[in-house]
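User: For my dataset I need records formatted as: sequence, then structure tokens, nothing else. Please produce one.
Assistant:
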Amino acid sequence: MMTAGRNRPVLVTGAAGCIGAWVVANLVRRGIATVVLDRSDDRRRLRLLLDEEEVASVPWITGDIADGPVVDTAVDKTDADAIIHLAALQVPFCKADPAAGARVNVVGHVNVFEAARRYGIRRLVYASSVAALPADGAVYPSTLYGVYKAADEGIARIYAQDCGVPSIGLRPHTVYGPGRDQGLTAAPTLAMLAAVAGRPYRIPFSGALLFQYAGEVAEIFVRCCIDGEPEPNRSQVFDIACARITVEEIVSAICRAVPTAAVTVDGAALPFPAGQDDGPLRQLIEPWAEVGLDEGVRRTIARFRELLDRGLLRVDAA
């Protein structure tokens, strides 16, 4: 098990994103040495969660995971002995530029596993997605992003089989909370920010999803890295699950927190499955503090109020 004060760091890819920022914040607060590799130097999401001194304490390497030598150098020079791999382009960006999506989400994924093989990394946790699973009645994932993530799970399996690189993949569902300002399912978070700012907002999809608070999801990633015992020559993939919640229910939760909220729903259900089981994950790691819908919405809205009051957040960016 990793402990606070250890000398060798955890390398986090994609820390400029929502889950990445939450993972880095979690590691920093545990006192675990952390290094970031991201193609962007944008630390604004991390600043939503940490103070400036904490943000400045995290070494930040700017580089593209689609460039293999960049990943190798990041692992080698930092002497990392664990990787939490979160860097990816989300659904809209893969659709807009499929080649770029494949370079980051597939080639970049291979580069991370190659670096793990070369440098003997035995704690590698990566983000897959519920989008990797076909929706009810379908045979394949419904988006390019989902196809890439399904390929990532297969790549992890082959690296375990052929190279002895163990890994743990996690499939989050619909993540919300501070920092969730882009991607197909960012709308509920943007609706919370709009409610705090006194602006109307329309969520452009409906249906039942598994809404998961970003802080809880990050805790699971960190627990899998710290507490999850990797099995030699095996790649494991786990769903992150919670209760099914309709978009209308999350709107009701927003209105309970902000009675003046003007949030509407107008759109078809998204083609993602919503019947996942996290029983196997709960057997892998110690229990974590679950965040229910009302509590997650309350925390998100309270943080947005604080950040807006301090001038650290714009209304057009969650």
